Major facilitator superfamily (MFS) profile domain-containing protein (Eucalyptus grandis), 579 residues
Amino acid sequence: MEGGINPEAADATAFRECFSLAWTNPYILRLAFSAGIGGLLFGYDTGVISGALLYIRDDFKSVDRETVLQESIVSMAVAGAIIGAAMGGWMNDRFGRRSTILVADVLFFIGAVIMASAPNPALLIIGRVFVGLGVGMASMTAPLYISEASPAKIRGALVSTNGFLITGGQFLSYLINLAFTKAPGTWRWMLGVAGIPALLQFILMLLLPESPRWLFRKGREEEAEAILRKIYPTNEVDREIRDLKESVESEIQETGSSEKINIMKLLKTKTVRRGLVAGVGLQVFQQFVGINTVMYYSPTIVQLAGFASNRTALLLSLVTAGLNALGSIVSIYFIDRTGRKKLLVISLFGVIISLGLLSAVFHETSSHSPLVNQAATSQFANYTCPDYGLATNAASWDCMKCLKASSPDCGFCASPADKMSPGACLISNDTVKDTCHAEDRLWYTRGCPSKYGWLALIGLALYIIFFSPGMGTVPWIVNSEIYPLRFRGVCGGMAATANWISNLIVAQSFLSLTQAIGTSWTFLIFGVISVVALIFVLIYVPETKGLPIEEVEKMLEHRALQFKFWEKSSSTSGKDQAV
């Protein structure tokens, strides 16, 4: 309980205690990192498709021509994850956390094999759905398992290891992407390697026990107590067992059963409803502030900023992935010192500023792209873009207008002397691309040359630096600890499903939005949503730092709005909690 822990002492020692466990009680870290491989799978899939998509477009011309097909390859995994998260919530309560993770690993492995051997886009999409099912289950189960197997004082830090492994998986995916850029089958290796961590986690989880809290709810008290005695110090374990027993008995007394879950009763229960508003809201806003546009389409965004080469785009995207992983390490350090809510607020302030910068940079990029020159284009007379050749106002054409031509698609061959000088507007195909490169010119099809490209990279880096420690990890931590034990699997599944639905909407619409209204306006929309998210956090999200899981329900029952999130609560017991 909050009153039982000195906040100053907890803040000063939580991070140190977490890492001292490596020596004093490695069993806890073994549980956390084994389950956290689910986060690695989540992160790897998010990151690997961004690089693989560049080469899938080269292999399958239909994918290169149709934006909708590109978005489908990305978003069908998200669609699978929606179903996986919804199924995962039910499976967690019915069969247990460990069993759900094992099923997720099998699905992910099957998906990786199908993707690596796909002879056409259709089968590739089927493989993406299988991977999505596994990722959806793992994304909500891994933090739940870690949370239920962690002492309260370091729970935030340990659940943050799941966030670190998500971002670590993204960073690893970019390294894998770079490693296979010159290998035959490029994208097949990139996607197929994903089966290895799934197989590793399957083996590790077979050697680990079920969540002690789930076992307790199922009446398997002896098994649960044996595991808790491995997790908690001797002087704390009896109190933890007693609190857990009281929590389960209270639920049974209230409902008459510890098995049946009535969804309507769930929504009518004040503590659950308040928890769902905060938990689901955070998961939705995590996606709508635009993070997965950066992770799914990072190389594409770099190309939109004016960097033409696929390899250069991947290399620069590796920087953003590395910063994302670094931000997760920062979260592990601060989550139990600063608190969940303060970290969210700081994160969103930075995200808003970063998105404003990105919007301004892309506005300047699109409004100051190099002109198309008639003389330069005539050097490639057989390949002149038809729309440009027929235009009555050809003198006003610039690179952006050239790239928007669609009958057929056209590209911009930059001037060899200076990429910002007038260039040629030509038909977009491999022959023309090679001809342009043969004259030491850069070939652009997804973005135009820009002197502001490096500012866009700075904006992306700032976005990741601010997003990762707060909005990147905190929503998963809050959702792993905010719900009553009886409803934790179902509520966590609902929140994860909301996350993946939001993810799908963003992933499926981003490229279409950039084509319809421009990259600048797209990032501006994300910025406005981030402002709304900040207001939501200030009003609806409670602080759960340092509270044992059984005490969080009491806190929600008596919580009052506290806009001055930077001030510590004056309450000294679980009966007098504030947000």
